[in-house]
Amino acid sequence: MINGNPHISREHQAYLQAVKLEQMKIVISRVAILVIFVVGWELAARWKMVDPFITSQPSRIWATLVNLHSEGLLYHHIGITTTETVIGFVSGTIIGTFLAVILWWSEFLSKVLDPYLVVLNALPKIALGPILIVWIGNGSPAIVAMALLISLIVTVISVHSGFVQVDEAKIKLLRTFGATKWQILQKVILPASVPTIVSALKINVGLSWVGVIVGEFLVSRAGLGYLIVYGGQVFNLDLVMTSVMILAIEAALMYQGVIYLEKSLGKWQ
Amino acid sequence: MMEAKVIVEAKDLTMNYHTLDGETAAIKDLNLQVYEGEFVSIIGPSGCGKSTLLSLIAGLLTPSNGAVLVKGEVVSGPNPNVGYMPQRDQLFPWRNILNNVLIGLEVQHKLNDETREKAKELLSTYGLGDFIHHYPNQLSGGMRQRAALIRTLAINPEILLLDESFSALDYQTRLAVSDEVRSIIYKEKKTSILVTHDIAEAISMSDRIIVLTKRPATVKNIHEIRLSCDELSPIKRREAPEFRSYFNQIWKELDVK
Ligand SMILES: Nc1ncnc2c1ncn2[C@@H]1O[C@H](COP(=O)(O)OP(=O)(O)O)[C@@H](O)[C@H]1O
Ligand SMILES: [Mg+2]
Model's pTM, two decimal places? Predict the structure, then answer.
């Protein structure tokens, strides 16, 4: 396409080629880093430069992965953690947005609750873990509650501030048509805040992972967080590293999914 | 305007704003009358209370004293007889042009096949028929302004309020759009009240110009615009020989220094 088109000037061709070359260099460098890291790790462990008992090594991780796969346990743990995380960030975003609507509806309430929100936002929610376990019980519900709690307050604060920043002139326009408060919410505030809500969702994906893994550390029944804690306790670093690896890949995939969602929603912007 | 019916009237209208910093008198004892079918411009220095006056007529604010009457009735809230066209088009970027135009009908629970067809007709009459499924960001500034006017016309109001509706456009587009808007309003036979601080725009578009004082606003003077050309087009009206003398007179009254 670049070379064959007679309408593209020589200068522009050179420019396009330079851009393409630059992109190739970037991709190659990325792959090189990964390969060097993995190969270096493997060789360092084989040549006893590091102790694979403590650092594990790629070939052992692979073996662990195959093992977990054949036992069928891998998908059990991944499934549990993923479900908890998804429930965590979806409910965090939905409930948070709902609470933000209530605060938008009553300016009085939002002013009254402001200092409480500030304190709750500042509080490291992880400190509430033991309380949740006592209240809700030692299981998945407590883990989901942890994930929800971590994302809820920031969602309320950021979505509410998005609501109040919606252009006054657009609200005024609807009011001249005689719109009710409910109609203003429905027809301007919510649609105008879709980008804010999606960006809250994006942040919540990360927060929900933190909540779920911490929850699994505390509850220790199943899931990737459980595998990590268990592996650490029995000094099976292969299991720990394998779980961390899976976690990294899954978290990245989920984040990309949200970015994809954001793009498909944001086509009119 | 002989024998014409008064359609909008302000009686001893006073509006004060209260904030913690104090009280701002925006409008004080203002009296004016607008006749059915005419195009009136309200001109005054910026910050004098023009937008406040339109908000009072639209029923968005309650006056501190006095009253606004629309068709003889005291305004106490938004009125379907009054359409408002804001500064900038304020089209919603997440709605296509048709759905933007239908929003007033939607809010007023008047959206049905008949009103939808009417809105579509208006869009095609005024050159937007091929763009009803486009989004606002795909249209030029002039087309967006036209869509905004049609959004106001779709609820079929008798009175149009235009609050510096063209001031955000660049000069070329502004001339073209005010020309279009004037001819659409003429064809649709609407009474219109345009707020502006652009003297030339006011003279070129209006039958009458009401000049306001500095804040708190009251009526300083009223000009009947009689140009010797029979043209309706604001662009052509700008070439009338009397244009300059109206301009100078109003310029002096506005006292911008
Ligand atoms: N909501 C408000 N609260 C307090 N003061 C206001 C408010 N809206 C307008 N004002 C003040 O009232 C005066 C008139 O405003 P406005 O009607 O917007 O003027 P104009 O449209 O002629 O520029 C200004 O001094 C402005 O600061
Ligand atoms: Mg104004």
Answer: 0.86
